[in-house]
Amino acid sequence: MALAASLFLRQSQSLVMTPQLMQSIQLLQMTHFELNQFIEQEVEKNPLLEIAPADDGGGGGPSDHILVNDDRGPAESMGNEDAGQPDLYDNATMGSAGDASETFDGGLDNVFPDDAGPRAADAPELIGQWKSMPGSEAGEGYDLDDFVAARKTLRDILNEQIPFALSSPIDRLIAQHLVDQLDDAGYLQGNIAETALKLAKPVAEVERVLASLQQLEPHGVFARSLSECLALQLKALDRFDPAMAALVGNLELLARRDFATLKKLCGVGEDDLLDMLAEIRKLDPKPGTRYETGASEAVVPDIIVRAAPDGSWHIELNADTLPRVLVNRDYYANVSSRTRRDSEDHGFLNECLQTANWLTRSLDQRARTIMKVATEIVRQQDAFLMHGVDHLRPLNLKTVADAIKMHESTVSRVTSNKYMLTPRGLFELKYFFTVSIGSAEGGDSHSAESVRHRIRAMITQEDPAAVLSDDDIVDALRKGGVDLARRTVAKYREAMNIPSSVQRRREKRALARATAS
Q1: What's the distance, CA 137 to chain centroid?
Q2: Which among 191, 289, 331, 407 has most CB atoms closer than 10 A?
Q3: Residue 381: which residues within 8 A CB-CB, separation 6 or more?
Q4: Which CA distances in Å does 229 have to 185, 216, 225, 272?
Q5: Chain-centre distance of CA 125, in angstroms?
Q6: How confident is the model over 289-323, as pLDDT tens digits?
Q7: Rounded Cα gap, residues 382 and 378, in angstroms
Q8: Global pTM?
C-alpha cells in the first residue's frame, strides 16, 4: 500500500479537561475545612487575593467574593503608618521633661520593677498579634487560653506513675519499652517473648514488670485481650470472684445471650447473673481512648432549612461556611501602571488576576450548585420534614440531576460531606438518598431508611413473651404494604446491631423474670 503526504482541514468538537476545570470540580466536593485550607494557600501565592474578616461588611464599597464584589483601594491595604509622625529627636526636644524621660527611658523601672507603673506598649498597633508585648497585660489583653494546661496523653499519665511503681532503672527501661507498644485503646500489642528476646532479659522478668504496669491507672491498660482488660478493672474494684472470672472467661457465650450455659458455668442464679451483667456494662472496654488528644470538631451545616410562615420551607446557605474572598483591583491597577507591559512583573500580575477571577467565579458557582441541589432535596423530601422518617421517600441521584438539569456526578460531588440543618435535626445530604423498596399492594414504593425505622420500632415494642422472628417481621411489613424478603430483613437487622430473635428472647425473658421477682 503506497503512502502519500496530504494536507486537509478537519473540524471536530471535544471536551478538554483544563487544569482550572479539574480544580473547579474538586472545589465542588471539598468540605468547609478543606476549602478554607485551599483558599489560604491561594491567598499566600496571589497578592491580589484577600480573606475578609467574618465581621467585615465589605468595606462600604462593592465587594468581590462569592456573593458580591468588593474592591479595596490601596489606602486600606497599603496604609502608611509613618505619615505625619515626628522623629525621635523632635519627640525628645519639643516637650516637657516628663516626655523626654519617657522617650529616653530615664525611669527607675529596671531597678524597682515592682513599684513601676503600667508600661506603655512598644508597638501599640501590634498588641492584638503579640500578647506578650509590654503594655498588653491589662484589661482585655488577657486570654484564658494562655492559662489552660495542655491535655495529657495516655503515655504522659503512665510515665508519671512508673517511677512510683518501679524502683529499678532496668525495670523502668522495660516499662518504657512496653509503653511504646500500647495502642490508642490501651492494649498491649507486642509479644512478651519477642520483647524479652529483644531486651536480652528473661521472660519471667518482663512478665513481672508487666504485672506491675497492669496495676496503674486507668485500670485495664496493658491488657492483651478484652477478657484480661475487664478482669483488671474488676480486680481494682475487688469484684473478681470465681463466678465473675467464669463470666469474663466466656464472653462469646455472653455475646450469644446463652444465659442458661452461663448460669451453669458461673454457678449462680438468674438474678445474680443479671447483676453481674450490669457490672460488666459499667466497665470500659477501651480505657485508653479517654486520653485521645485529637480535637473533635463539631459538624457545621452547609445549608439551613427553616419553616416559613406560609407553610413552605426557607432554604439558605450557612454564612459561616461561605468563604469571603476579595480581589484588590486597585492594587492591581497601581502596580500594573508602573510596570511595562512586556515585563515579567506585568505578566505575573495578569496571571494572578486571572487566577483570582477564576477562584471567585468557581466559589460563586459552587454556592449556586449546592443551593440548587439542596432546594430540590427539600422539595422531594417535604413529607419527611413535616412528619418524620416514616415518610422519607426513596430518592436517587438521577432524579435530582434530571430536575436541576445537571449530571449525576455533579450531584454526587455536591452531596459528599455536606450537611443540612433541618427542624428534624442535622443530616448529611446523602442521608436523603435511599434505595426504593417495592410496595406489596402496588402503591408507592418505600424508602429503605423508613423500612429500617419500622423494623427497629417493631423490635423495640415487641413482647418478651412473643419475640418477633424475621419471618414475623416480614409478615408485619407486608401487612403494612412493604414487600421485603426475609434475608433483607436479616441484613437490615444485623446492620442496626440488633441480635437475632433467639438471643433477644433469652435476654428479655431473663430481664422480665428479674423484674417480676
Answers
A1: 35
A2: 331
A3: 392, 393, 395, 432
A4: 11, 12, 6, 22
A5: 36
A6: 888 766 666 788 999 999 988 888 999 999 888 88
A7: 6
A8: 0.59
